[in-house]
Write a structure and sequence with these properties.
- This protein has 206 residues and is an alpha+beta fold.
- The chain contains six helices and six strands; from the N terminus they run ααααββββββαα.
- It has helices spanning 3-36, 42-63, 67-71, 73-95, 163-194, 199-202, and strands spanning 97-109, 112-119, 122-123, 128-131, 142-147, 156-157.
- Strands 1, 2, 3, 4, 5 and 6 form a six-stranded antiparallel β-sheet that branches.
- A hairpin with a 2-residue loop joins strand 1 (97-109) and strand 2.
- The longest helix has 34 residues, at 3-36.
- It starts with a helix and ends with a helix.
- The model is unreliable at 198-206 (pLDDT under 50).
Length: 206
């Protein structure tokens, strides 16, 4: 093997390793950010979206093609959801207080709903918030909720609190990224060696 080929391969391995570290850093960093900013989900969501988009772009540069980069958006969603929701749900499972409550009143419409709850000690100061078009709750219904005694995490329906499931989704997403990065690095190396232009660029799509 010529010195030029060895240098090119070392360069490919280094770039691949850096992209892999970036992928792991996104998952670990955004999860840690979610812990630090408990109760302010908008912060890790915004940062996670930006970092995930950055990873897609970096993977495209490594791969020299778009198809694998665009495919990486699927595990990116798992990483984003897992890193954002694991921390608050883990906090609720660890220190949360479970209560059986009655749905007393409902306010809102469309994708924004707020439910007033009544527990064993009377009306709860904190409502149950739901973002979505089909909340599935009705006035007079009895449900089990988990609330944070420290007030950092909004109360939640106990059926929706699944820290283990969030962690599993996060691990699956990171594992998929971990498999994609070496593939992208190797195929990008081959593309450069052959001086081949990516298919979508040849077709004038991108």
């Amino acid at each position: 093997m010529s010195e030029g080929n060895r240098t090119s391969r070392r360069s490919m391995l280094l770039r691949t390793l850096l992209v892999l570290l970036f992928a792991w850093g996104i998952a670990v960093g955004n999860t840690a950010l979610a812990y630090v900013t408990l109760g302010y989900d908008a912060v890790p969501i915004a940062v996670g979206v930006v970092l995930s988009l950055a990873f897609v772009i970096v993977l495209r540069l490594l791969h020299q093609a778009w198809w694998l980069a665009l495919l990486s958006a699927v595990p990116a969603l798992l990483v984003l959801v897992g890193s954002v929701q694991y921390a608050p749900e883990a906090a609720l499972e660890r220190r949360g207080i479970r209560e059986s409550v009655l749905v007393f009143a409902h306010e809102g419409s469309g994708d924004d709903h707020s439910y007033t709850l009544v527990g064993p000690q009377g009306r709860l100061d904190e409502p149950l918030e739901y973002r979505g078009s089909n909340p599935g709750y009705r006035v007079g219904q009895r449900i089990e909720i988990v609330r944070d005694p420290e007030g950092e995490v909004p109360l939640a329906d106990a059926a929706d609190v699944d820290a283990r499931g969030r962690r599993t989704g996060l691990v699956i997403g990171v594992t998929a990224w971990t498999l994609m990065v070496p593939l992208a690095g190797w195929r990008g190396y081959v593309q450069r060696r052959r001086n081949r232009e990516p298919l979508l660029e040849r077709l004038g799509v991108m």
